[in-house]
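Action item from last week, closing it out:
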Amino acid sequence: MGRGRKMIAVASVLGALGGASWLYCRARVRRLPPNCPARFLSGGGRRASRVVVCAGDSLTHGNLGFDYVGALARRLGPEGFSFINAGVNGDLAYNLWKRMDSIVACHPDHIVVLIGINDVLALADAASMKRAGRMKGVPRPVDLEWFRDIMLNLVRESKMRTQASIALCSLPVLGDDPDDSNNDLVALFSESIRSIAADEGIGYLPLFERMSDSLRANPWSPPTAFRPGRLPLCRAVFQRFILGWSVDTISGNNRYRLTSDGIHLNSRGGWMMMELVENWLRHQG
């Protein structure tokens, strides 16, 4: 075989491997958690004295970052808690609101909501907004007012259709610099979440505040700022599912302290979230 034909053959093999890797990663990203609402209901529903639905996006889903829902289940399961993971990768607040039926059907005692980081990214980046419309069916451009309306609908519907106590979480810091322009937007969305919780008389879990305080108390110089765009996320997905790296290995490779790829929580950031939820649950009686 001539040199040219060998190069074509090698390129064909590499192309096939790349295509297979992409399909595998896409399937893994789309796979629902083993304790999602549908599987909980198909297994007969309630088996514990207190059912907790953790609702949100990939931060809750947990296969791209630290699985705080699984960690809570291991920690509090022996005390009679059952945790349902209603996190779907890529969801915006609108998508979670449209999934309310599946959450209500679980008859939860407690609902914890962590949603909005994809809304922030859609507002900050036109390409992200286009993907939200194309891949997630979001019917209009995201802005802070619409996000607040959706969150109010979600909270009020939860109060009307369930007997659950409800807690809203502020959003995680993007990257390691809490004072950059991306996190100015995160702070605005988080403040909107806080004000909704106060107005509706429900719980508020200050994840953004805790992460920001931690980063400011132990600053790196210079801090690793969030890198927007698809490339950092695609690289992290490849490292996670093809190379088998842990979220903390990815985090160290990217020089982030609380996230793996600038968005998803590493174990340190995940423990912050887990502790906030645990402390809130223990005060619900």
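Closing note: The chain has a mean pLDDT of 89.
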